[in-house]
Write a structure and sequence with these properties.
The chain is α+β, with helices and mostly antiparallel strands. Helices cover about 25% and strands about 25% of the residues. A hairpin with a 4-residue loop joins strand 2 and strand 3. The model has no long low-confidence stretch (mean pLDDT about 90).
């Protein structure tokens, strides 16, 4: 699979191989370091992070990495097959802190979209947790009117939902208290195939 359009002269995207232990360890290290500040309980140590990376190398999953000329992983993304393959979950996505803002995250998402499309997928979705009050949905009781809260969502401190919106994802729901009281998970999705049903 080629991802030339999604790369630049300094890095390219490739499939993460189960045979490359060095890259697997790098991918796990990115999870530990990258999520430490805003979701420290996600992958608190290398052992748990390595389990996550290995789980993403199964036949029903996609695992792609952006690597530089020295073979260092700059970021990686996973996709999990769901709903008989019509829907795929984007999980996880991480880019090394010093490499952010260079288009790597965007390229990884686009590469995953391509893979999902080739495998017959229609929808790609992602859960974007808010565990540290980065949106207006956090720290409040959403149950009185969940839909109204979604309509009025505001990004308070660089929550990634706006990154996904720029890539064509839309907010399709929220799970209140998913990570504890007042810590929701925001659900976003995007159609990745060219087909859509006619409106009746």
């Amino acid at each position: 699979m080629g991802y030339e359009r999604m790369s630049d002269a300094n890095w390219h995207i490739t499939t993460l191989s189960a045979d490359n232990q060095r890259m697997i360890e790098q991918a796990a290290g990115l999870l530990v370091e990258g999520f430490r500040t805003f979701a420290p309980n996600a992958w608190p140590n290398m052992s748990i992070a390595l389990e996550e990376v290995h789980s993403m190398l199964g036949s029903d999953r996609v695992c792609l990495a952006a690597i530089d000329a020295q073979g260092t992983i700059l970021g990686w993304i996973g996709g999990i097959r769901q709903y008989e393959g019509f829907v795929w979950e984007l999980h996880p996505l991480i880019v090394a802190e010093k490499q952010r803002g260079k288009g790597i995250g965007t390229a990884l998402v686009q590469a995953l979209e391509q893979e999902v499309r080739l495998r017959g997928g229609i929808t790609l979705w992602v859960g974007t947790d808010d565990e540290d009050d980065r949106t207006s949905l956090a720290g409040v009781d959403l149950y009185p009117d969940v839909l109204d809260a979604l309509k009025q969502i505001r990004n308070l401190r660089r929550h990634p939902y706006e990154f996904y919106e720029k890539l064509g994802f839309v907010i399709v729901g929220v799970m209140p208290d998913a990570n504890g009281c007042g810590k929701p998970d925001i659900y976003m999705a995007k159609r990745v195939c060219g087909e859509q049903r006619k409106q009746t």
